Amino acid sequence: MAKVEQKQVVVDQIKAKLEGASSVLLVDYRGLTVEQDTTLRKELREAGVEYRVYKNTMVNFAVQGTEFEAISKHLEGPTAIAISYEDATAGPRVLAKVAKANEKLEFKGGVVEGTYYDANGMLAIGNIAPREELLGRLLGSFKSPIASFARVIKQVAEKDAE
């Protein structure tokens, strides 16, 4: 098999992974120790995020003509790609947690649900609480006024009974 055909196979694999992705994040992993990288990969795997290192040219060819094309400008130097499928914020959230503990892990940019964000935007998305926690807060904010209203009605009813 010629080198071009081998490279095309890798590009097609990357394209296939990007098709079902809800978010893609690029990070510079220089300076991470093997132990730190192993821990990072384990946390990402548990969160359902695929984390790989591909050649920048391969990723560049794969993102051409897709919603992730905007990340191609960040494909310089050592670059790892984190692909989230179900929870769009899972990858950025895990990587933001690791980046707080290790300054050497740098965000480059990414795309979340079709919208491009630079490094600061992706870091902000990474600091958003998980979906379940946000839903719990929302339900709690709905419950509080209803409970207060119920207490007031009860007190009014008790006052009228006297």
pLDDT averaged over residues: 84
Q: Which term fits the overall shape?
A: elongated
Proportion of strand residues: 15-25%
Extended strand count: 5
How would a textbook summarize the main sheet? 5 strands, antiparallel
In angstroms, what separates the terminal alpha carbons?
92 Å
Keywords: Ribonucleoprotein, Ribosomal protein, RNA-binding, rRNA-binding
GO molecular function: large ribosomal subunit rRNA binding; structural constituent of ribosome
Family: Belongs to the universal ribosomal protein uL10 family.
Protein name: Large ribosomal subunit protein uL10
What does this structure look like?
Helix content is 55%, strand content 17%. The longest helix is centred in the last third of the chain and has 31 residues, at 131-161. It has helices at residues 3-19, 34-46, 56-63, 90-101, 119-126, 131-161; strands spanning 23-28, 49-53, 80-84, 106-112, 115-118. It is of the alpha+beta class and 162 residues long. A hairpin with a 2-residue loop joins strand 4 (106-112) and strand 5. The radius of gyration is 22 Å and the shape is elongated. The protein is built from six helices and five strands, in the order αβαβαβαββαα. Strands 2-3-1-4-5 form a five-stranded antiparallel β-sheet.
